[in-house]
């Protein structure tokens, strides 16, 4: 029997295929490339299709594997035409998936699209593996998504949860306990060597005191809240603010920063190569992850990446953050969605040198604990998923 693996995920399938398929054979413990590289490493002689949803229909063959993008969100289309485009793209994905006849589907998307993918798997008799990267049943998650996620969780053959919070979310949503596997983000060896070199340079001592945000630059990730908080702090503290990451709000954030009264102390860098993230973090005083509670955060990888370079983190007291930020030990938690409490928390950090030293020690310890997880993504693929495909 021919084995066919379909992997549905966020992102852009064609570009990722061009970038990552030629790197087959690499196994990473950390970074954004670990997912695709982990899957293709253990394909053996199986046929493979990488699928994503985007702005236009695209398909390419790369190194004998397929990469397909389905147009669910065409630009400059609104109202009923946008809904029609979504239904048309989803129908095309469903039909082509059934015709492909996969023996296993790895589904990294939730909500209604996850339900459609699960239904296609059932029609094909394919094993359905649900990869959980976002919060599933938080109050901020819409009703239709919560209902869809509960159906998927109960009916999946296997659930891979990215970290302890998402494991708890999967179980709360009805997943069968012995079908839930937790994997964790780690630190890749090559990135570890880079961090060791950064430690020798002692970059943090020479750099200005900088607050840093690393991640997707989106409104619901709290980037404008952080800019507002910084404006309230800047008169009292000689600190700078740096934003690192791509996203739909980069241009609006740059405009706001440029018109800010503290414009000369704010940098909006946009996307940078992943290895450079560590040097930006290492040269910062503290990382701030101001995600709003309406965003279904599943695992904030920035927290772990900050710990790997010994930088404490300030984050909201909701969702996954209390699972990874030990308040008063490796970082500080503040009231979600409250700019005023974010300001007070940053002030507390800046005003207390002894607290900063304690949190830095805690961040270093947390980084060492999380450097090599018991089960990373590629180990889960090797040991759990593909042998049964």
TrEMBL record:
Q: Which PANTHER family match?
A: SULFOQUINOVOSYL TRANSFERASE SQD2
Keyword flag Transferase: yes
Per its record, how is this protein called by name? Answer: Glycosyltransferase
Glycosyl transferase family domain location: 198-363
Please list the residue ranges annotated as the Glycosyltransferase subfamily 4-like N-terminal domain: 30-186
Q: Which SUPFAM superfamilies match?
A: UDP-Glycosyltransferase/glycogen phosphorylase (SSF53756)
CDD domains xref list: GT4_PimA-like (cd03801)
By its UniProt entry, which InterPro entries does this protein fall under?
A: Glyco_trans_1, Glyco_trans_4-like_N, Glycosyltransferase_grp1
> Which keywords annotate this record?
Transferase
- What Pfam families does the entry give? Glyco_trans_4_4, Glycos_transf_1
GO function term, MF aspect, one: glycosyltransferase activity
Q: Does the keyword Transferase apply?
A: yes
